[in-house]
Design goal:
Layout lengths: L1 H22 L14 H9 L3 E2 L2 E4 L6 E4 L5 E7 L8 E5 L2 E6 L7 E7 L1 E2 L1 E7 L5 H12 L4 E2 L9
Antiparallel strand pairs: 1-2, 2-3, 3-4, 4-9, 5-6, 6-7, 7-9, 8-10
């Protein structure tokens, strides 16, 4: 009788571990071209465990981060630095962000730091999180690390 109880307890433990680990597995992403920039490493180690109420998840690419299950926020450091743009630009906590609304119909938005090197991109699911909360959580981390290039948001006429 005792071996059966031990076997049942072991099976239950394995099932629970498999279930819990399957809830939020590693997020598969591609590293950006400049992911090896030392500033990206500095960003990566300072990112919070929670953003906009979403728990951080492991990723398999250098200088990336993800939050939520399913993934609601993806951060990629080392993306191409944007040049002059017609995209809307907003300043949040001292960091200028270009706002790409080309996937807004699917409730996905892409935010890219402007006037900073290396550049950081944040891609989010607007059904789950709001950009203001997300950028307010991340901008104070990025502001002292990402070097200013001199480009800044300018008001639209």
């Amino acid at each position: 009788m005792r071996p059966r109880r031990l076997l049942a307890a072991a099976a239950l433990s394995l099932l629970a571990a498999a279930t819990l680990s399957g809830c939020a597995g590693t997020v598969s992403l591609q590293p950006a071209q400049n992911a090896g920039d030392p500033a990206c490493a500095a960003v990566s180690v300072r990112l919070p465990d929670r953003v906009s109420g979403q728990e951080r998840r492991w990723t398999d690419a250098q200088a990336t981060a993800a939050w939520g299950s399913p993934t609601a926020i993806i951060l990629t450091c080392g993306v191409a630095e944007p040049g002059p743009s017609t995209l809307r630009c907003e300043t949040v906590e001292g960091v200028d962000w270009l706002i790409d609304e080309s996937e807004a119909a699917d409730d996905h938005y892409r935010f890219t730091t402007f006037g900073r090197t290396p550049a950081v991109e944040v891609y989010l699911d607007y059904d789950v999180v709001r950009s203001g909360d997300t950028l307010r959580a991340l901008s104070p981390i990025l502001n002292p690390i990402l070097e200013k290039t001199g480009s800044v948001c300018t008001p639209r006429a």
